Amino acid sequence: MEFVSDPPITVKIRKMNERVRWQEPLIAERGIDQTRIVFKDGWTDSSEFSFLVMGDSGAGPRRGQNPQRQVAELMLAHREGCRFTLHMGDVIYLVGSSEYYRENFIEPYREFLVGGEQPKQIAYDQMVFNQPFLPVPGNHDYYDLPFVYGLMAQTTLPLRHLLRFQLDLSVGWHGSGQGRAYAKAFLDYLKTFKTQEALSRHLDSHYFAKTSTGHCLVYEPGRFTRLPNRYYTFRSGGIDFFALDSNTFNAPLPLAATPQGDDFRRQLKNRREELAQQKNRILETCPNLSPNHPGEAEQLDELRTRLTQIDEIQRDIEKQLASDETTVTDFEQLDWLQQRLIESWHSTEARGRVVYFHHPPYVTEATKWHQGQTLAIRHRLRRVLDAVSKAVGSLATGRPIVDLFLSGHAHCLEYLRTGDTGHADSYLNWLVCGGSGFSLRRQRSLGPQLLEFFGDNDSGHSREVARSLLFIGRNGYGSQKRRPYTCLRIDVQDGIPPKFIVRPFVAELFQHQWSQKQVEPFTL
Which of 281, 302, 323 is the last residue of a domain? Predict the structure, then answer.
């Protein structure tokens, strides 16, 4: 049995729309754009600025260590020089539960919150940031618990008792409520207003900025720091940022549409059986290990990491096997991105574009590079970028359609550059920042080159479409194991097209000791 469950895409979309009262009459009548934010008057907006990036951070302390707090301290050293922080998703592990927000988010990032000197008094659904904090939802922010675990909550039977082993999976007693906890923590949860009068007063107070796409929400650090939707856009220093919810367009492509469909289906079923056997062996081994013995505690950590990896791969396989019958894609969001990118290219005030979301389309982390979701995100982004390229034509000559892509999901820090993909995502820069707190992963054994198969079985061929130029993740084994947790500072320079100086920061755990490192900056 899986430890977590993932709601269907249709449910994610419907629930999130209900929470923000998506395009209800009162909102539509006022001409409000629920996908846009502007920052309050007086907010510094010079063309040269810096911002912080983090992702996949939401784990709590474990055996006296708190990687997330180490990363927070790295970020604090640069907070004053940075305009905002982007979060690539998976704010809370393992199932996005509201009960873990205090320990896994509010406590480690207390200095970023108003009233953070007393973090125990901050409710997860009443957080106010003293500097813009701009997340996107990750898959774990949508996860829930299977029914049997909910039943356990009613009987107060500890999860580890039922499973008879010593792994702490941080699942608590309930899940995210199909993304409800994330929405209450970060979105403008309009569903709470029970009368039209109350909603109208709220809209008057916070949706008064005039833009080319209508009135929109004003983000006010220190006072009102809510986001209008699960996906949104904002402009800073002439750079248009587009935040996406990739959880609703990551469904694997139908196997019937692939050249190796039948063979691949058999491979997936065999792989599913192998993973089930591996999981059973782990569950049989864990009761014999003690977390109080240093060597066995280390082994338990490895098994815990492997167990979460297996669970994730199994979910991806099940989605691929069901894809011919149940594939759903959030085309409304993708069409929105396409149109807004085209508008950005035609705006004289926009000099560059950054897109960020959870699931990476290019990655060499061992558990993500071959997933159906990775390929699906790549395919659907290509559709958007190809359409944008065609629409803007000569405006983009000699320039990238998007200057920088940021994502998480893979538990590492990685910089990749695409080559000739045959699409408008060729020769672009891709940063993966998913190593900010949860269990780190290794790079795949096949190395930094990513190949893609083109054509059919008879006349097809493989060619390189991307290459990893930097990978920072778990490495070494046993007593030589290193865990480098990471975040980024990105400095945006003036000019068209803009240049980005990427500064990776590392808090490394090695032999129970922490050290801080800065990787050599590089320019994109």
Answer: 323
